Amino acid sequence: MTTSTDRNQHIYQLRELIKDIGCSMLTTVDEDGSLHSRPMEKSSDIQPDGTLWFFTNASSHKVFEIEHSQQVNLSFSSPNQKRYVSISGSAELVNDRNKMQELWKPELEAWFPQGLNEPDIALLKLQINKVDYWDSQADFAAQTINL
Q1: Counting CB atoms within 10 angstroms of each CB, which of 16, 54, 79, 114 has the fewest?
Q2: What distance in Å separates the CA atoms of residue 54 and residue 58, rounded to the nearest whole number?
Q3: Which of 85, 16, 7, 101 is nearest to 53 (CA)?
Q4: Residue 145: what pLDDT?
């Protein structure tokens, strides 16, 4: 059983692993069972409850895929630091204007030119379940964090 202190330490450790890696690859399951990946810019640090947030267009195909299978994978890599992180979890679409305002960053205008006034803008909430990582500081052996 994971205690609150253990969980907080795991989340801190994961934050440290991905803090300087902004872009990740989000993998979803398409309706035919095939895997589909695309780059995603994280919109926040890992929250205390073990979630990550991403802005998206609500009508995008990834949202369609997530509505059919919430299980996703998120991978981060930093080859220069020899650090690779694979996050398994579940995702859902969230239309919460207050949360969007809280998470908004000006650099997101590259994808959402109208900012929070984009008609199709929404959030993806990813609840982290398990993390596997390889890090040169960990003798490059696979390590696992269970949340």
Answers
A1: 79
A2: 11
A3: 101
A4: 62
For residue 144, the one-letter residue type is T
DSSP, residue by residue, 6-38? HHHHHHHHHHHHHTT--EEEEEEE-TTS-EEEE
Q: What tokens appear for 62 in the block?
A: 């990834």
Tracing tokens 């982290």 back to the chain, one arrives at: 128
**146, 7 Cβ separation under 8 angstroms:** no
Is the separation of the CB atoms in 132 and 64 below 8 Å? Answer: no
CA 86 to CA 131: how far, in whole Å? Answer: 6
Query: Measured between alpha carbons, how far is 27 from 57 in angstroms, rounded to an integer?
Result: 16
Q: Can you read off the two tokens belonging to residue 5?
A: 């202190």
Q: pTM here?
A: 0.84
DSSP for 87-121, written as a single string? EEEEEEEE--HHHHHHH--GGGGGT-TTGGG-TTE
Other beta carbons less than 10 A from residue 134's beta carbon:
16
**3-39 pLDDT tens trace:** 677 878 888 888 888 888 878 999 999 999 999 999 9
How many residues belong to the chain? Answer: 147
